[in-house]
Amino acid sequence: MFHVEHQKKVQVMSGSYFEVIVVGGGHAGVEAAGAAARMGCRTLLVTHQLDAIGALSCNPAIGGIGKGHIVREIEAMGGLMGRAADAAAIQSRTLNQSKGPAVQAVRIQADRPQYARQIRLQLDAHSNLQLFQDAVVDLLVEGGRCVGVMGRSAGVLRAQAVVLATGTFLAGRVHIGGVNYESGRAGEPAANQLANVLRHHQLPVGRLKTGTPPRIDRRSINEETLAKQYGDKPRPRFAPFAVGAEWQKALPERPCLVSYTSVQAHDLIRSALNESPMYSGAVTGVGPRYCPSIEDKVVRFADREKHQIFLEPEGLDSNELYPNGISTGLPLRIQQEVLHLCEGLERAHITRPGYAIEYDYVDPRSLRRNLELEALPGLYLAGQINGTTGYEEAAGQGLIAGVNAALQIRGDAVWVPQRDEAYIGVMIDDLVTTGVTEPYRMFTSRAEHRLQLRGDNAEQRLLPMAYELGLVSDARWRQYADYQEQLDQERARLQATRVSPQTLTPRQQALLGQGLRRDQTLYDLLRRPELDYEAVLAIGDLEPSTERALALGRQLEIEARYDGYLVRQAHENRRYQHYARAPLPQALDYQAIEGLSTEVKERLRRTQPPTVGDAAQLPGVTPAAISLLLVHLRRNGWLRLPKEEGAGD
Amino acid sequence: MATPEGRGAVAVVRLSGPEAFELAGQIVGDLPEARYAGLRVFRGATGEVIDQGIVICFPAPHSYTGENVVELQGHGGRAVTRALLDALRAVGARPAERGEFTQRAFLHGQMDLAQAEAVAALIDADSQVARRAALRSLQGALGEWVDEVASAIQQIRAQIEAELDFSDDLHEAGEETDDIGPPLESVRTRIRSIRQRTVAGTHLRHGLKVALIGVPNAGKSSLMNALVGSDVSIVNELPGTTRDVMRERIGLGEREIELQDTAGIRAGDEVGAVEHEGVRRALHAMDHADVVVLVTDANTPLTQWERHVLAQLDPTRSVVVRNKIDLDGALPLSARPTESLTRFMVCDVSALTGSGLDELRERLHELVAERDDVEPLAGEQRHLEALDRADEALAEAVRVERLQLGREITAEQLREAQLVLLGITRRDDNEALLDQIFRSFCIGK
Ligand SMILES: Cc1cc2nc3c(=O)[nH]c(=O)nc-3n(C[C@H](O)[C@H](O)[C@H](O)COP(=O)(O)OP(=O)(O)OC[C@H]3O[C@@H](n4cnc5c(N)ncnc54)[C@H](O)[C@@H]3O)c2cc1C
Ligand SMILES: Nc1nc2c(ncn2[C@@H]2O[C@H](COP(=O)(O)OP(=O)(O)O)[C@@H](O)[C@H]2O)c(=O)[nH]1
Ligand SMILES: [Mg+2]
Fold it and tell me: Considering CB atoms only, which of A304, A308, A445 is closest to B164?
């Protein structure tokens, strides 16, 4: 729009030339800026308010099932979130402890100011990263590439790559009952000019909505009548390997309180539905199915007599509580009355009203896998702007956007984890191929390699690559390599020690319980659900190898438990094994293949699998789809099999 | 070529493609009005008359393939058909690859994959029952059955996935999962029944396999010729001439079977190296046949090998033939050491004179009907593989549940099972699962 004009303007920060500019100091923005800086780029983070960097817009908690998995991955790639969460935790729990390790994850309650402070401290530790407080109002576009941004006060800011991580701020509109106004998040301005710019560039923009509950004053509730929930001891951590005094400190613990809604509260909500922006038609954006407002819950699950409310402490020095479970867009007056009909909240005082917020997002199918806009190279999008929701989801994308912006500047190939490497890979693949119909949140069920994508092995999955990219330090690498070596040795030791039915001593017999049918290694025995690492060592008459043995042992237990299933899970497509190595031409026009579903075409186009075998691994690509692909290749004379190790035919 | 070569009273040749009308015109002169049958003379390149028959034109897109299609219905017979095909080739047509018509129809969006495969089955179906099975699948029966089972699996998945991803929410509502063993077993039962019916369908399509086995010179090849009614197998007086497995389909009532004539099987010593492979194949055929016919010579006592085989054969799927009863030396059944034969259906026949053949056909028909006593569904090998893989995954899920190895492992088995089944009808919908979860459970704080 105004590019020509902008170029004439003086570049305010001309003394400092930036390679990467990140817009937005939310969870996506800080990870993007951190990653680009760690990879050696001179980086600028521009955001509305420096003091809001690392703000938790919604509830004061990090992690959970699926989300906690992402935090572990961020940690394994040298990101900020896990460490900040550990240092700001005022309560930590491992969820799903009664289920298998693949679906267990850590969730912490955070002290809000401490979390933001920890993020800021980590950012400040990067010497090649600068912060700047400003509102970005335009993009600089030259020759079809994004080459910088325009700050309201700074003017022209040039860079080789730009990451937009503007969250819910694009054309954000807050609704409280019949009242609505422009805002990016309670008390902060919306980014309307930038929203217009995106529309001007004809990016596919849509509307989504989300909501947040009212906050209440702890001193006004009847605390004694409510059940308390404490965390686990010892506290589980996202960054168990972090060394150094600052990571070992722990804040005091605060419990959560548990309250319930009531039939009367539900009746009241039902009678006031016409005043809720979601039901009156004022909000048109689509909200998430899994994070329903209390209005939604009451309507959709009409026969439930009560819903749980989790009262989360906002922080150590705060009297405010976050009542998780009753996000709402009802008028303040009704919010107040509803609260008073809930257990223990009869006289609760609201400190901040709950609200619904609508905002613009960009259809993520317009992105490449590296999160760069196909139509506007040089511009990367990360976080809620891509239709996701949640801090962890945003942070994961931010990291990948930052990495790829840096890779582009280095002239290196794109790197994005695959679906079998990381939840982050699953998320990005889902986003760019399937797009979103509601705010996208991670669930473990989205990962078809769930047994492989675990919290315990995040480092094994990602740290070597992160080191290669330059995301983690030499010291961190050595620490990992050392651990890995011990793990390998211990595994080898268990695999080398055999027990045989002929030579079982009565003691071994007793330890084994079930008995032994044939020769087995200790590692094989570890697969038995009733035997843990210590028991297996005892059976083999072995001592723990190192001080760290127990940690190693736990990990080996998990490995052994899933070992047999990982192979099985690998998408096998026997019928096409013969063609698995047949290359797919780079310029193949997938749109032209008749009979393929749009989704599959899209997925193939984006992922550009190098061979038919790779294509067959992709989710949604069925044998029938491969069959069509082969037909298409053969028709056009493109079906070739590389001659190798006696590959006949 | 739409009808199998050399069979039937009418040979139908179909031309498909943008130039189908033009090419057909060069053979039959002016074309009849679209979708009306017209009688025309078919002429070769030099103008010689090849045949006379019906011509029907189906303009795109309202045709089977979605392209312009011309149907030429001539008189059967190899020579005539071949001449017609040569003529078409001469004007620029090329013979379709196997299944290409259906493939084109599929590619032009005229049908879904399971339907396309059903059509292929229909074209192949020679018998009445097979035709009906294919028709049922064409109307989507296999797909529907499979979809139903897949959605039953999805329902179980929704429950346990909700429990894995939202344990807190469900715990609160007291919505803990009950024992999923019984519902899993019921799904498995349904899969097995679909499988059985699909197997019946493939039998109809490819014919139930009936293997003729026996010592060399017992008369297997002769018997096969007699049953088929033409010389397909090599008959020779030197033992061990039939080295390959010969296959031929014959009608049996309203069904069809595939007869397999094998090399003679011997206990070992005299078997020459050349013959060795043939013997191996015969044993293989016996293992893979649905019904086995042991051909013996009624003029000689049972050999060591024959007794050995009788001990292994399953009487519910075999018939023993005493051949060459026309010869003087033929011993009556009662004069033989019958002990090993009492468990079996025994037929006295002469491949030479044809006596006893009707009774043998009757016996075979009974056995075949017994083995296929279900409503058949037209399916393909890949459908069977998919059903097997799904069942395998479910069996593992049941085991994991029983041993309590972990719900997350069960969940992956169910995912696998559902995906494999959806592959049959080419549907894959992750979103549907999430939708079911959020419809069924109140999730989210
Ligand atoms: C009311 C509300 C309720 C929510 N409820 C939930 C929930 O229930 N569950 C859940 O998982 N998640 C919820 N979220 C989402 C979660 O907060 C976000 O997904 C996450 O914070 C997104 O991170 P982000 O980095 O993409 O953006 P944000 O954290 O929103 O950060 C965006 C940053 O960009 C800055 N910015 C924006 N535009 C400009 C500009 N033009 N110039 C300069 N700076 C700019 C902003 O000031 C801000 O610092 C909610 C969010 C809100 C606002
Ligand atoms: N008389 C008579 N001869 C037969 C009969 N069946 C087969 N033969 C002869 O037996 C010989 C071997 O037959 P063949 O079918 O090749 O036996 P195979 O080795 O079992 O396949 C040939 O000479 C046939 O003509 C029969 O029913 N009666
Ligand atoms: Mg023979």
Answer: A445
Contacts of B406 in chain A (CB under 8 A): 99-100, 102, 529, 561
**Does residue A560 have its Cβ closer than 6 Å to ligand 1?**
no
- Closest chain A residue to B160, measured at CA: A445
How far, in Å, from the CA of B282 to the mean position of ligand 3?
11
- Tell me if residue A186 falls in helix, strand or coil: coil
Which residue, of B72, B90, B105, is where some domain finishes? B105
pLDDT at B131 over 90: no
pLDDT, tens only, A368-406 = 999 999 999 999 999 999 999 999 999 999 999 999 999
At A345, is the pLDDT very low, low, confident or very high (cuts 50, 70, 90)?
A: very high
The residue among A286, A442, A296, A235 whose CA lies nearest residue B445 is A296
3-state SS assignment for residue A470: coil
Task: Give the burial string for A182-220 (b: 16+ CB within 10 Å, else e).
Answer: ebbbeebebbbebbbbbeebebebeebbbbbbbbbebeb
Q: Determine whether B193 is exposed, middle or buried from the number of CB atoms within 10 Å of its CB (0-12, 13-18, 19+).
A: middle
Domain that holds residue A251: 215-356
Say how far apart CA B68 and CA B61 lie, in whole Å: 7
Q: B190: which 2 tokens?
A: 């349904």
The two tokens of residue B239 are: 């033992």
Q: Which residues of A touch B430 (CB under 8 A)?
A: 446, 619-620
Residues A605 and A548 in one domain: no
Nearest CA to ligand 2 atom 8: B219
CATH of residue B337's domain is 3.40.50.300
What's the CA gap between A405 and A588, in Å, rounded? Answer: 27
Clarify whether residues A240 and A349 are in a common domain: yes
Please indicate, yes or no, whether residues A238 and A339 belong to a single structural domain of this protein: yes
Ramachandran region of residue B227, left (φ > 0), alpha (ψ -120 to 50) or beta?
Answer: alpha
CA of B215 to the centre of ligand 3 (A): 9
More confident residue, B304 or B239: B304
List pLDDT tens digits, range B152-195.
999 999 888 988 988 876 655 555 567 888 999 999 999 998 88
Q: What range defines the domain where residue B32 resides?
A: 10-105
B189 touches chain A (CB under 8 A): no
pTM of the model: 0.74
Q: Is residue A283 located within the same domain as residue A343?
A: yes
Q: Which atom of ligand 1 is nearest to the CA of A385?
A: 26
Report the CATH number at residue A507: 1.10.10.1800
What 3-state DSSP class applies to A455?
coil
Q: Is B235 in the pocket of ligand 2 (CB under 6 A)?
A: yes
- d(Cα A573, Cα A578) in Å, to the nearest integer? 10
Number of Cβ atoms within 10 Å of the Cβ of B320: 24
How far apart are the CA of B352 and the centre of ligand 2, in A? Answer: 8
Q: Chain B residue closest to A445 (CA)?
A: B161
Structure tokens at B114: 């399971």
Work out the pLDDT band at B265, boundaries 50, 70, 90. low
Q: How many angstroms separate the CA of residue A230 from the nearest CA in chain B?
A: 15
Given a cut of 80, is residue A634 above it in pLDDT? no
- The residue whose two tokens read 């991670």 is A442
* Three-class secondary structure of residue B205 per DSSP: helix
Helix (H) or strand (E) run with residue A569 in it: helix A549-569
DSSP string for residues in A155-178: EEEE-SEEEE--GGGBT-EEEETT
Any chain A CB within 8 A of the CB of B98? no
- Dihedral sign (CA B284, B285, B288, B293): negative
Question: Is B237 a member of any domain?
Answer: yes
CA B61 – ligand 1 centroid, Å? 52
Q: Is residue B111 part of a domain?
A: no
